[in-house]
Amino acid sequence: MSTVELTLKQQPELYLETEKITPDSFAGKSADEIAALDVYEGNLTHKLGDFFTISGTPGQTAQDTVIKVKGDLLRIKWIGAKMTAGKVIVDSNTDMYTGAFMEGGEIIVNGNTGHFTALGMKGGNIHIKGSAGNYLGAAYRGDWRGMMGGVLRVDGDAGSDVGTFMRGGEIIIGGNTDVHVGTHQEGGKIVVKGNAKSKVGGQMVKGEIIVFGTIDVMMPGFAHRDNIDLEVDGAKATFKRFEGDLGERHPKSKGKVIYGQLYIKA
Amino acid sequence: MTKLITDVVCPFCGTLCDDLEVVVSDDGKELLEVNNACAIGAEKFLHSQAKDRLTRPRMRNEDGSWREVSYDEAAEFTAQMLAKSKKPLMYGWSSTNCESQVVGSHVAELVGGQLDNTATVCHGSTLIAVQDVGVPSCTLGEIKNRADMVVFWGCNPAHAHPRHMSRYSLFPRGFFTAKGHRGRTAVVVDPRPTDSANLADIYLPVEQGRDYELLSALRVAFRNEQLPDVVAGISKEKIYEVAEKMKNARFGCIFFGMGVTHSLSNNHNIDIAIQVTRDLNEFTKWSIMPMRGHYNVTGAGEVWGWQFGFPFCVDLSRGFARYNPGESSSNDLLMREEIDSVFVLGSDPGAHFPFSSVKKMNALPCVVVDPHITPSTVVADLHVPVAFVGVEVGGCAYRMDSVPIESHKVVDAPEGMLTDEEFLKLVLARVKEIKGV
Ligand code: SF4
Predict the structure, then answer these.
(1) Contact A221 B216 (CB under 8 A)
(2) Which are the contacts of B436, defined by CB distance < 8 A and separation ≥ 6?
(3) Which residue of A32, B24, B100, B156 has the fewest C-beta atoms within 10 A of its own C-beta?
C-alpha cells in the first residue's frame, strides 16, 4: 500500500467539489499529475494543487492506494465519492457527500461529516468517528435506491432521514437520530444504539430497524408480535419485535407476507 | 366614458381566477374599479395605481441613500455582477410570466447560476415528493364538475385562496355536481380551527407535526389492519369512519398547503399523502393537488422542468443542471455562504426568508427587480422597478393545477417603464457581450 498525503493549504472562498479525491483517480499518477486534477468552486474550475499540498505516491491500482486528507475540510464536498477500492482517511470534519455512491474500499473520517454522507452507497466500509448530518445512506433525490450494500458506521449521532429508500447493507449509529429512520426501506439493516425520535419505519416494505433506546412516537402501522433475544453488533439483549408498515404494500414469499421488522430493546 | 374589460386574469394567487372585470378610464391609463376579485386580488390591481410609485431604477450610494439611474445603467450593473460571480443565486420568478422566466433561465445558464423559485419556502417539498413517488392529479375543472368529496389538509383557502372554494372545490354546481356544496363532503385537517374548518362536514384537529402519522393511519385503515386507539390526537373510530367515506366517494380530491409542506416531515407528508391518493384509486377515483401560492410559481417549475429537468433548486454552476434541495436551495446556499451574489425577481425573500438568510443577502451584492418597495429592496444595492405583470403587461401563467392561462394587460405602465422581460433581455444581451458568446 502506498500513501498520498493531501494537506489543505488554501481555504476556498465558497465551497470546493473534490470528487476526484479517490484512490481510483489517484492510482498510477505522479504527485504533479494529482495536483493537476480538476476541482470546482462554483462555476470556476481549479486544480487540486491550488488548494492542497500533495506528498507521497499512490499505488499502481486503487486497491494499493491510501489517501490521507488533512486540514480543516469543512468546505470540501464529495471526498471519496464513487470510489471502488483503496482507502481514504480524513483527518477532520468534512462537508456534504462524503463517500456518496461508494462501491468498495474504505473511508475513515476522524470527525463529523455533513449531509448526504454515503448517499446511494453500494459497497465498502465507512467509519465516521464523529456525527453525520441528514440523509445518511439515503437515496439521491428522486431515486428509489438508497444505500444498497456495504457497512456504514457512525460513532456519534445522525440527523434526519437515515437510510431513506435503503435496500441493502448495514448502518450502525452509536448515538441518537433525528426523525425519519428507514422511510421507504426495502431491505438492509439499520441499528440505532441511542434514541430515535419519531417516524421510524414509515412506508417500510422490508428490512430491519433495531433501536436500543427509545422511540418518542411510534408509527401507527407497526404491530407488536413477540419478544425475542438478538445479538446485535456484539451486544446481546431482548427486543420487542414489531412488524410493519401495515399501511404499505408488501411482497409475498412462499405464500407468506414479508413485513419490515422493527426491534426495540425491551 | 369608461371602458369595461372582461375575462381579466388575476395575477395574485395560484387560483388564477380568469373572470375578473376591470373598469379603466377612457384613455386606458387609469384603472378605476375591479369586480369579481377577492379583496387581495383587487388590491393587487389597485396597488399599481399608487401615485408615489417608483418608475425608475435606483442605485444605493455609499451612505445608504439612493440615486436614480437609467435602465441601461441598471442592466450594466446587473450583468457585471452576475458575470463576475462564481456562484450567483437567481431567486424568485413566481410573480412574473413564463416569458420572463425563459429569458432569466438563459441568463442563469450563461453565468452558471443557482436558479430557485418561491417553491423553496412553499411547495418545494411537494416537488420532491412528486419526484419520489409520482402524482395522480387532475384539473380544477374536473373537481368542480365531478368531486363529491374534498379534503383540505394543512391549508386554509378561506383566507389564502379566497375564491378557490366558490369557484372550484366546495360550492360550485357542475355537470355531475348539480347540488353544489350540499352534494359535497368536506373534510378539513388542521391543528387550528380555521375559517375553512368552520365550513367542513368533518374537522380533524390533528396534533401539530403528526400529519405523517395520521396519513399513515388512513393507509392502515384502507387495508383493514388494526390501529392504535389514538393516532395524532384522532380516535381510531374517527379514522376508520373517514377512511370508509373516502373509499366510498365517487370522485375525491385532497388539497394541501403549507401546514403539511413546511411542518415536521415536510416532503414525507406529501409523499405519503400521494400514496393515500394512490391507495384510494384501488376503490374509486381520487386526485391530489397542492394549493400553490404565488400566481405563477407553478409556471416557474414548468419552464425549468422543460429547460433543465428540475422545477426548483437548479444548480447550473458546472455547466449542466443539477438539483438537490438541502444543498442547492436558497436558504441553505445563503446560510452556508455558498454563493457570492443575489439577484431577485418576482418575489420578496426579505419578507419570506429567515432573518439569518436576509442578513447574508445584505452582506452580498444584491439586485432586486420588483414594482414595489419591499423588505428585499431594503437590502439591495440596486432596485429595478418594473411594470406589473398581469396588469400592465400580459403573458403566460400556470394555475395551481398546471393549466396554462394567458393573462392580459389592462392598463399602460407609467411612461418609460420596462417590463421584467424587457429588462432581462437587456441583461442577457450585456452578459453575452461580457462572456463573448
Ligand atoms: S382567489 Fe386568488 S386568483 Fe382569485 S381573485 Fe382572489 S387572489 Fe385573485
Answers:
(1) yes
(2) none
(3) A32
